[in-house]
Amino acid sequence: MSGSVRPAPPSDLGTPSPKTRHHVARSFAACTQGLRWSMASLVVVVAVTASAQDTVYPYGVPAEKPDMELSAAMERAYEQYIAPSTWDNELFTKFRHSPIEGLDYHDGDGTISRRDPSKIVKANGKYYVWYTRRSTPTPPRGAAGGTDVIPSTDWDLAEIWYATSTDGFTWTEQGVAVKRPPKPQAGWRSVSTPDVLVWKGKYYLFYQAFLEMSGTRGDDCPVTASWADSPDGPWHAVGNVVIPNGSKGQWDQYSIHDPYPLVYKGKIYLYYKSEANGKPRPVRFTGLAIADNPLGPYTKHSLNPVLNSGHETGLFPFKEGIAAMVIRHGNEHNTIQYAPDGVNFQVASSVSLMPIASGPYVPDAFDGNDNGRGITWGLCHHTGAGTKDKKHSILYRFDCDLSLDVHDEWMKEPEHWFPPEVYFHSQVNAGKRKQLIDAAEKDLAE
Fold first, then answer.
1. 374 within 8 A of 382, measured Cβ to Cβ
2. Tens-of-pLDDT digits for all 446 residues of the chain?
3. Beta-bridge partner residues of 273
4. Is the Cβ–Cβ distance between 154 and 392 less than 8 Å?
5. CA nearest 331: which of 284, 273, 288, 279?
6. Does some domain include residue 22?
7. Of 225, 298, 312, 385, which has the fewest beta carbons less than 10 angstroms from its beta carbon?
8. Can you list the positions of beta strands (E) in 257-320?
């Protein structure tokens, strides 16, 4: 009631009896014990929860391997790759492909073909590229149809030409760099698949030198070279084999293809491809030959082959080692691989739509400074241009992000989306379709 005065509590409630004191003490002890058990339980629950959280992989993907037991797949994500996801893996990329302008293909009749571009070199304010060029009266006719003027394959009866560009998209063909020498010199039948080395102010072209018509056996094809004081030539053929085929029974006994020189640790590391096992089940490997001077002598590495998969060579300095684009063939095809010593390669990423016969622009290809920066673009070829009776190869451009100096999120997203027609282009043929239908009918009848 408003204005009322609450009576004061009594100041003396009297002395509790011994029985009352005993009950109060027991009640207090019970409450205290219960509180202790509750607190202990809470500590256990918190500890168990924290422990469980520590052993479950976190939502935010750690850049460094967490201190916990991991599956083999997650161990590999941290131990084998630069980063546990493609977003931060400097050796993962999406490849983008674009047509180039300026090169004529004779209305696509199959008589002109360009393929196997070299590394791209910057000189005289331009980009330079060398490549295989075939100009013949007819398209290739196979080994049975080949003659002194009719090619057996797309790279038969070829020469090495070059082109220049100021933007990497439009190219101007400058003419022939290396012609076929007279028989019986190495390359009399065809010279093809060049690559370039710049060493102490001089330019060197290494290329396949065919001593027989391609397709007749194992493509008897060692490597030879030409040199010049300028990327525009004139080019002087050395006139001898620079890297010979292997001895009989060795994996590279028939051919040394796709010579690809880099400067590494003060020496010339020349990677090459060869084909073992023979038809109908060929196996492609990559080897390495090392020299102190461009024209040799070259010593093939004792651990050859250094790559167990791939086809054409395409490598570049990366950090203190060498990275390789491994395409098309083998258990590890469609991968980017890395060797800190340039020899012992490991898979660094799995990629798709890789450029075939890549000729990347490698600004530091010849620096040899143990600080390779990677690549972002280059040229490559497509061998399926033209109709069946007019097949030829064309050059085109690829872009990527395999660079330590660029981080393009657009290139780090791994998805490719294609219309159904792209997938159906590789559908089974009529004979295989019938075989599969017969197998299905037999399966259902059992």
1. no
2. 444 444 444 444 344 555 545 554 555 455 455 545 444 444 444 444 445 456 899 999 999 999 999 999 999 999 999 999 999 999 999 999 999 999 999 999 999 999 999 999 999 999 999 999 999 999 999 999 999 999 999 999 999 999 999 999 999 999 999 999 999 998 999 999 999 999 999 999 999 999 899 887 657 788 999 999 999 999 999 989 999 999 999 999 988 999 999 999 999 999 999 999 988 899 999 999 999 999 999 999 999 999 999 999 999 999 999 999 999 999 999 999 999 999 999 999 999 999 999 999 999 999 999 999 999 999 999 998 998 899 999 999 999 999 999 999 999 999 888 999 999 989 999 999 999 999 999 999 99
3. 257, 286
4. yes
5. 284
6. no
7. 385
8. 257-264, 267-276, 283-291, 299-300, 315-319
Task: Specify the amino acid at residue 401.
Answer: D
* Residue 89, token pair as written in the block: 């893996």
The CATH number linked to 289 is 2.115.10.20
**Which residue range(s) make up the domain with 192?**
90-424
Strand partners, 324: 315, 337
- Residue 33 lies inside a defined structural domain of this protein: no
Contacts (Cβ under 8 Å, ≥6 apart) of 397? 97, 98, 99, 100, 168, 169, 377, 378, 379, 380
Structure tokens at 158: 């070829």
Q: How far is CA 348 from the centre of its chain?
A: 9
Q: Work out how many domains the chain is built from and give that number.
A: 1
Residue 70 included in any domain: no
Q: Is residue 130 part of a domain?
A: yes
